[in-house]
Write a structure and sequence with these properties.
Layout (H helix, E strand, L loop, with lengths): L4 E5 L3 H25 L7 H29 L12 H9 L20 H27 L16 H26 L7 H8 L1 E5 L15
Antiparallel strand pairs: 1-2
The structure holds protoporphyrin IX containing FE (HEM).
Length: 219
């Protein structure tokens, strides 16, 4: 029997803006960062380093806005980890998905992340991104001088800062590949990506979901 579908508003305007700008900046930082690392040559070392520094300030600015937005809107609650149905979700991605089974959890406007996404995205926000950004800031400040001509950071060997930063960058690239694959596992291969572009996702009518009020509240 053909199911009736309806649209649910999942991703708010700022969230979509932040998601795509952050994704673009991280990819650009990877491109320029791995050139600085010596992996390939596109812009030339000097330009790559300059672009990398500029983009890193943009990412820091964006993340400050995103933290503010998550705290003031209460959206941070979507990332509270839960073990409820976590096992079912993992088993689904390992096996059920290849047998055409239904998703064990349903997305709603009020609970937009499944238990596995909650844990993975929380780790991304609280571990992976901070490792890369904090080591990046230490890298930026390494042996730069403040107004009193005092060297800001020199106690840590540059090699260990570079190690953590490169590790963060490699893990971010692994995250990116897995994340892009996972986005294709929604109702249709493109439904999750469309939701992150338009804000709306099509759900079946019998799904228990709480519709987020009207569009005027969507900001
Ligand atoms: C706010 C975030 C970031 C800051 C402040 C930052 C800063 C830096 C700095 C200062 C360098 C040394 C090159 C130079 O002197 O210009 C560097 C290198 C590098 N960055 Fe970043 N970066 C950030 C984010 C990222 C991201 C998101 C990636 C990749 C996904 C990345 C990948 C790399 C790589 C691979 C290197 C070369 C490391 C080496 O071989 O020593 N960076 N970064």
């Amino acid at each position: 029997m053909q199911q009736n579908m309806h649209k649910v508003y999942i991703y708010k305007r700022f969230e979509r803006f932040w998601h795509w700008v952050q994704a673009s900046l991280i990819m650009f930082l990877a491109l320029t960062g791995f050139e600085v690392h010596g992996t390939f040559k596109i812009f030339g070392f000097e330009k790559a380093a300059e672009f990398h520094r500029t983009a890193s300030w943009m990412l820091i600015g964006l993340i400050i806005f995103a933290i503010f937005w998550h705290l003031t809107t209460g959206e941070w609650r979507h990332y509270i980890p839960t073990t409820k149905q976590l096992k079912e979700q993992v088993i689904y991605y390992i096996s059920g998905i290849f047998k055409g089974e239904h998703h064990p959890t349903e997305r709603t406007g009020l609970s937009k992340l499944n238990p596995l996404q909650r844990i993975v995205y929380l780790g991304f926000k609280l571990i992976l991104v901070p490792i890369t950004i904090i080591s990046g800031i230490l890298y930026l400040l390494y042996k730069t001088f403040d107004q009193n001509n005092i060297i800001i950071i020199e106690d840590y060997p540059l090699a260990s800062i570079a190690f953590w930063h490169t590790l963060g960058a490699i893990l971010l690239m692994i995250f990116l590949v897995v994340h892009v694959y996972m986005t294709t596992t929604g109702k249709t291969p493109t439904s999750n990506i469309k939701a992150m572009i338009t804000g709306y996702e099509e759900l079946e009518d019998d799904q228990e979901e709480v519709k987020v009020e009207n569009d005027s509240k969507h900001n």
